[in-house]
Design brief:
By secondary structure, this protein is of the alpha+beta class. It is about 35% helix and about 35% strand. The protein contains 5 helices and 8 strands. The chain has an 8-stranded mixed β-sheet, with helices on both faces. A hairpin with a 2-residue loop joins strand 1 and strand 2. Helix 3 packs antiparallel against helix 5. The model has no long low-confidence stretch (mean pLDDT about 95).
Length: about 200
């Protein structure tokens, strides 16, 4: 049975720092880059809601079903977003990666690939997960494309699954990577990062 504890993860120019209220100012600045909260299908907090966003994530960590991080770009030494494990099911050796968002300037950069490599590596190699899930809104086509580009397999769509911030109800697209798929996915992510670093 997996046991998940707050841990700092670092590599390929990013550091995942256990989320705390000290990250509030950095997250506000990151969210303001692109006014990401205006996208109805994302989980990005509005500037005046960042503190409650962090507090809610830490409550999930205390319950044992979440493990949140702030994402730091080491090149600029700035907070550029957030991500977390959620829906942690210890008895099934399963975590999901989600609540992921980045400042607009970091989208389509190496940041997401680096973060996913760190999160998958920690899940499969340190806490011995058997499966890592990912999910996204059916209208978040950019996120679906990014998840599929990681090498995750589409499990299906849960219809009328979760309320959006605007009160509408989304369909949720579900993906996963199994432990025996991880070596291939890892090689793929490492190759993507090497190519990025070469450019």
């Amino acid at each position: 049975m997996i046991k998940v504890q707050p841990s700092q993860l670092e590599g390929h120019g990013v550091r995942l720092e256990p989320l705390s209220l000290e990250h509030a100012a950095g997250l506000k600045a990151a969210a303001a880059d692109g006014k990401l909260w205006e996208l109805f299908f994302t989980s990005v907090p509005e500037p005046d809601q960042v503190s409650s966003y962090i507090s809610s994530a830490l409550e999930g960590q205390k319950r044992g079903d979440m493990l949140p991080w702030a994402v730091r770009d080491l090149k600029t030494d700035s907070i550029v977003g957030s991500t977390r494990y959620h829906d942690i099911i210890a008895a099934a050796d399963r975590v999901e990666i989600g609540w992921t968002w980045y400042a607009q300037r970091c989208q389509r950069s190496h940041v997401n690939t680096a973060c996913k490599l760190l999160l998958f590596s920690f899940a499969f190699e340190k806490i011995n997960c058997k499966v890592v899930g990912l999910r996204t809104d059916n209208f978040n086509f950019r996120s679906q494309k990014a998840i599929e580009a990681l090498g995750a397999k589409k499990d299906g769509v849960i219809r009328h699954h979760w309320p959006r911030r605007d009160g509408s109800i989304r369909d949720t697209v579900m993906y996963s990577v199994l432990r025996d798929e991880w070596p291939g996915v890892k090689k793929h992510l490492e190759l993507r990062l090497r190519r990025n670093e070469a450019n």
